[in-house]
Write a structure and sequence with these properties.
With 92 residues, the protein is mainly α. It has one domain. It has three helices and two strands. The longest helix is centred in the last third of the chain and has 15 residues. The structure holds zinc ion. The site of zinc ion has 8 residues, from loops.
Length: 92
């Protein structure tokens, strides 16, 4: 199976695949939540941001971001990283 980052592709509550739908994260919770499980106050992280996270983990986002769509994704990703959400190769 392809490596992919499980933390970025599944809901931590119900384990539903997030697919291309928006996922949600919060400063007090770790992991991504699906639309059904999201809590009040969580912020959305769209699939573009999750793709960026998978492709550019460890890279400086500011260097690789180019275009408005990617800027929006990078902003979501940066906020998610500040909330402690990271895709790393280490197991949990
Ligand atoms: Zn869920």
């Amino acid at each position: 199976m392809a490596a992919g980052c499980r933390a970025l592709s599944r809901c931590v509550v119900c384990d539903a695949g997030l697919g291309v739908k928006a996922a949600f994260f919060g400063a007090q919770q770790s992991g991504l939540y699906c639309e059904n499980c999201k809590r009040a106050g969580m912020k959305p992280m769209h699939v573009g941001a999750r793709n960026l996270a998978e492709r550019f983990t460890g890279e400086r986002l500011d260097r690789i971001v180019d275009g408005e769509a990617m800027k929006a994704s990078a902003k979501e990703l940066r906020e998610a990283a500040l909330a402690g959400l990271r895709c790393t190769s280490k197991g949990s």
